[in-house]
Amino acid sequence: MSRLLVIPLLFASLVSGGCLYTAKRGEQLEAELRKQRELLAQLDAQINQQRETLEAENREATDKIAELREVIREATEIVTRNSADVGADVEVIKARLATIDGLLAELEHRLETQAASSNERHAQLEAQLRSYAIRAGVEIELTDAEVPAGADPHFTEAKRAYDAAEYGLARALFRAFIVRYPRDARLEEARYLLGDAYLRDGKPQNALGAFQEIVRNHRGGKRMADTLWGMAEAFAQLGSCADAKAALEALVAGHPSSTHVADAKAELKNISQGKGRCQR
Question: Does residue 36 register a pLDDT over 90?
Fold first, then answer.
């Protein structure tokens, strides 16, 4: 069987049967997850606090408006009452009504302004929460407003985020690019950079999923050697040395001119001697 054909089978075995993390790697992943959850909880608490404050202000303004309306109603009854006792006070009451009416209009305007400000602040906090979550590595799908329009600006922004080590944002953009532009000439590159962004961010199992798409759809592509090297690295991080060895052997045999060959041979030697990062 061709060594290149071994990789999909090995990967399928990994996905269906599961691959055990080393104890150290498992602790690291749990710590990262706890940190991300704590950050999201803090941001969510800030949003709730802001919402409660604005709702209290709105209730206070609404109560004042109701109070003033009651005053106006009572004063109107007095003004319209046919009685000699109140005739002398009519002009004074009218002046007071005009003042109260102005205050009422001011409060209504303030309430409308606060409502608009509340919505704007809430939207800003929501956007901030999403931004923090994406950069913290939480896998969130982007909205249309968050994705650049057009294939070229989209790919450029995804590559910029990748080069800046903003791997959470880069992954979200590359995932969206793959869905939106399935026939783009840069599809293989987008899939490879998606997998590499997972790998660089300490998510080897997710990286294998992205790399597998290259093995399945771009076997003769320019990124195949890089993909096999990345798969070997991901398998090594997961402690699956047999699969890492198979990926390295496929790289050496199928891509002898690759810049990874020397390192691949050295790593194969380490694996055979029980040395290096991948422990059997």
Answer: no
> 10 pLDDT exceeds 50?
no
State the distance between the two ends of the chain, measured CA to CA, in whole angstroms.
24
Taking each helix axis from N to C terminus, what angle separates 224-237 and 204-217, rounded to the nearest 10 degrees?
150
Q: Judge whether residue 95 has pLDDT over 90.
A: no
Would you say 214 and 220 are in contact if contact means Cβ atoms under 8 Å apart?
no
pLDDT digits (tens, 9 = 90+) for 106-134: 777 777 777 676 667 666 666 665 666 56
Q: Which two tokens stand for residue 33?
A: 């997850």
Note the residue count of the chain. 280
Structure-block tokens of residue 148? 């650049």
User: What's the Cα-to-Cα distance from 101 to each of 72, 91, 112, 220, 230, rounded to whole Å?
Assistant: 8, 15, 17, 78, 72
On whether the CB atoms of residues 251 and 6 are closer than 8 A, the answer is: no
Give the residue among 196, 275, 194 at the shortest CA–CA distance from 229: 196
**pTM of the full predicted structure?**
0.57
Q: Position 151: which residue type? A: A
Contact 91, 75 (CB under 8 A): no
**What span, in angstroms and rounded, lies between the C-alpha atoms of 49 and 121?**
12
DSSP letters, 152-184, are HHHHHHHHHHHHTT-HHHHHHHHHHHHHH-TT-
CA contacts within 13 A on the Cβ side of 245:
16
Residue 191 neighbours by CB under 8 Å, 6+ apart: 174, 178, 210, 211, 213, 214, 217, 218, 223
Which of 179, 260, 249, 185 lies closest to 221 in space, CA to CA?
185
